[in-house]
Amino acid sequence: MTEPCFLTAAAASRAIADGRLTSEALVRSCLERIETRDAAVKAWLHLDPRAAIAAAREVDKRPRISRLHGLPFGVKDMIDTADMPTTHNSANWQGHRPARDAACVGVVRALGAVILGKTDTVEFAAAGRRAATRHPMNPAHSPGGSSSGSGAAVGDGQVSLAFGTQTGGSLIRPASFNGIYALKPTWGTVSREGAKIYANSLDTIGWYGRSVEDLVLVAEAFRLDGVGHEPAPAPRALRIGLCRTPYWSRIEPGGERAFALAAERLTRAGVAVEDLVLPDAFGGLFEAQDTIMFGEGRAAFLDELLIQGARLGRDFVDRAENAKGITPDRMIAAHDLAAECRRAFSALFERVDAVLAPASPGEAPHGLQNTGDHVFNAMWTLLHGPCLSIPCTLGPGGLPVGIQLVGPRYADARLLSIAAALAPVIDAETAAQS
Amino acid sequence: MTEPCFLTAAAASRAIADGRLTSEALVRSCLERIETRDAAVKAWLHLDPRAAIAAAREVDKRPRISRLHGLPFGVKDMIDTADMPTTHNSANWQGHRPARDAACVGVVRALGAVILGKTDTVEFAAAGRRAATRHPMNPAHSPGGSSSGSGAAVGDGQVSLAFGTQTGGSLIRPASFNGIYALKPTWGTVSREGAKIYANSLDTIGWYGRSVEDLVLVAEAFRLDGVGHEPAPAPRALRIGLCRTPYWSRIEPGGERAFALAAERLTRAGVAVEDLVLPDAFGGLFEAQDTIMFGEGRAAFLDELLIQGARLGRDFVDRAENAKGITPDRMIAAHDLAAECRRAFSALFERVDAVLAPASPGEAPHGLQNTGDHVFNAMWTLLHGPCLSIPCTLGPGGLPVGIQLVGPRYADARLLSIAAALAPVIDAETAAQS
């Protein structure tokens, strides 16, 4: 039998349901994997093996009330946990211990999940200090950010589910780099309570898994509309819009290869693919996302500025002090453009069932300072709809590159069922394993 | 000299700056007023006089770095405070003590404000259990909600500044009922971190004061765009749109009188007033706000549902379980209508400088169960722009009724300076005192 730590969450869930696996055995397997790999990968900021085993034992005694029963989760360390520190990877927050779990942690814990530990993150999931996490397949490279530890831990077989967040591209980009699956659900459908605010119009809690079914387990927990009730489509019945986005000039060889391969595989599987060129207005979305991210970031870091004073890093001082000089007029224009494009994007789904787009420019970048470019993520975050990353291939440097499927607002369930149909086609390398 | 507790915040701030008043003396005066009045008004859920006096003494020793130096604040008890419980007026949260101040509390504390205590609120600022607070002028009546305690405490001379929140009309409506001033700033300009989420697209932190200048003190602390740099307009140079809103059929005699009186006083002062009829699309905003409030409320209370189980009140179970059956299509339509009307509303400000609208249907309602109707607030909350409540008159029942000025998104500073020019005209009863 596969070491339990390498199972998909869905497979582990079935094994637990059937009595073939206990939560304790699964958690122990994950902890062993982490012990072997942590010196190289450094995905975790907090890990208390004894407490995790104790929590798993408790869950093993309780009745199973959900498919998450007994499954371990990594939690990005800017999401509150009542029984573990929450440091935001900030020097000023070391030892901070919230009094209560963030809403997302509370939900999965109540359903029987075991919080394994806290994963490293770019400071406040925004800027400043980078995670110490290294790419599991090549320690000279970043695993991406800001959900660095969650992406690397899932990619490296240390845990099969982990929470991350996305304001620019912090969830989908690391999924692409680490060869794993991720769902950024529709903005507003999962409570962001207890996760550090950066830009409230954009920040979205999401999760990593090793298969589409893994993503569904968590989507069920959050009761996303229609999850579990969407019929599984046949690939031949699907129409996929190939969207190079207005930012295609920034694609790299790895990303270009993944996009072309995915399109080719879909075509071969009988999926109706067509090039989808977005209306001109969409060309302004990257800048609009940047304006809103920095413009709302002013309020998000003002208390830090006043409380930490000179201890606060320059990136956050700049945000709180509006170093970019963002004006009210630019904020209004950015919000109005986003609203216009959200509506126009919804209308495109009369012609296509999902949009296929790059998940990252290419492979994970060299060094830890550069966590990658969010140019292929920012516009989708601003559009508020679901994004789902699927592994696709390896780039010229031998590291994974994925693609993403994008849907209109609130169509998370539909996107998950389309992804379930198409992942075995797109994810040629790893589909056989899951 | 007036008892310090009855001073406006701006007057107290000047007295502290000039050395005529200490924070300790001001806090002691507030505490005496509370001791006299608390049995009747019940505005506070937590008050620790010794700790408040100690905090004031500490502030008196420190250099003055802002106009908030030494000023006491009430904080609605669904906003986190590190040194006081935060109960959300929920039976399940008694004794809960957050590890950190909410961002808004952190900001004013860092600037020298003294947190006097926590004020009563409708449970989670949403539904369920009502505040025990009574109207200061008539204990048979509600002071409004959900910011019940903050509104009543400021109205009753117990404190001159207090934080509240608005998702429907929870900030402006109690201001109208209690004869005080309030600012609901533009959505997104003040961090909502550490305040309970109800509907993230709507929830807005705001504050009460006893004059427009009081509101400015706090707006300065949050560095709202342009505050302190907007020239004070002359009333004769202003054009005010009189907006009865699409919901005028729900006005009561008190609200009608306040609206008519305000218009009459403005006209007499030489302000150019004109009737402003909103485009037809605005007629859908009340329902759209309701859809978004309940639709986003699903996610907000899911962790409560799973963790509290049978201990959770019916109102919150209904929200988490989507008892209203809100569909994705309705959510999308509501968001898109809001976006369309936000843009259209901004365009109206080529013709007018501010919009005058009812702040509540009329006077505070009888009994504590009904905290008042938010029909004249919900649409403005959804439009995201600033709303500023000004006392105007007494209704037929002898209780206060205010009006509100409304501005376009991000024009908070401009609205504050317009209100400073017009409040002495509109607030005929109390303007002389402040």
Polypeptide structure, described:
The structure is a homodimer of 434-residue chains. Chain A has 2 domains: 4-273 and 347-426, Amidase signature (AS) domain (Amidase signature (AS) enzymes, Alpha-Beta Complex); 281-330, no CATH class. Helices cover 37% and strands 14% of the residues of chain A. Chain A contains 14 helices and 11 strands. An 11-stranded mixed beta sheet of chain A has the order 1-3-2-4-6-5-10-11-9-7-8, sandwiched between helices. In chain A, helix 4 (103-110) links the parallel strand 2 (72-76) and strand 3. At the A-B interface, helix 4, helix 9, helix 10 and helix 12 of A face helix 4, helix 9, helix 10 and helix 12 of B.
Give the count of helical stretches of chain A.
14
Level-1 CATH class name of the largest domain in chain A? Alpha Beta
Task: Please name the CATH topology of the largest domain in chain A.
Answer: Amidase signature (AS) enzymes
Rounded to the nearest angstrom, the radius of gyration of chain A is 20 Å
Helix content of chain A: 25-40%
Detail the poorly predicted runs of chain A.
Answer: none
**What can be said about the biggest beta sheet of chain A?**
11 strands, mixed
State the largest interface.
Answer: A-B, 49 and 49 residues
CATH architecture of the largest domain in chain A: Alpha-Beta Complex
Order of helices and strands of chain A: HHEHEHEHEHEEHEHEHHHHEHEEH
What structural class do you assign from the helix and strand content of chain A? alpha/beta
Report the oligomer.
homodimer
How are the strands of the biggest sheet of chain A laid out side by side? Answer: 1-3-2-4-6-5-10-11-9-7-8
Number of folding domains of chain A?
2
What portion of residues of chain A belong to β-strands?
5-15%
What is the distance, rounded to the nearest whole angstrom, between the alpha carbons of the first and last residues of chain A? 14 Å
